[in-house]
Amino acid sequence: MFSVAVVGAAMTTWTQADYWGSPVTWANLLNNAFGLATVQVLPGCSSAIPSRSR
Q1: pTM score
Q2: What are the Cα distances from residue 14, in Å, to 11, 27, 35, 37, 52?
Q3: Backbone angles phi and psi of 49, in degrees to 5
Q4: SS3 of 52, please?
Q5: Exposure of 8 by Cβ count < 10 A (0-12 exposed, 13-18 middle, 19+ buried)?
């Protein structure tokens, strides 16, 4: 839940309203709370990670 509420909210490139309004954010929060998934894709956060070029 820390990754959704703190890290994701701080690192997203989306507005806070869009981030918290996204169903993906809430799905990740519930998955973390119940231990259903360990892989996370948070809205607006993946664009901050540079892609590896070969």
Answers
A1: 0.71
A2: 9, 17, 26, 23, 23
A3: -95, 115
A4: coil
A5: buried
d(CA 11, CA 53): 22
Kindly state the DSSP code that residue 22 receives in the 8-state scheme.
Answer: -
Number of H helices, E strands in the chain: 4, 0
Beta-carbon count within 10 A of 31 CB? 16
1-46 pLDDT, tens digit each: 788 888 888 988 899 999 999 998 998 898 888 888 766 778 887 7
Identify whether the C-beta of residue 8 lies closer than 8 Å to the C-beta of residue 22.
no
DSSP, collapsed to helix, strand or coil, labels residue 12 as coil
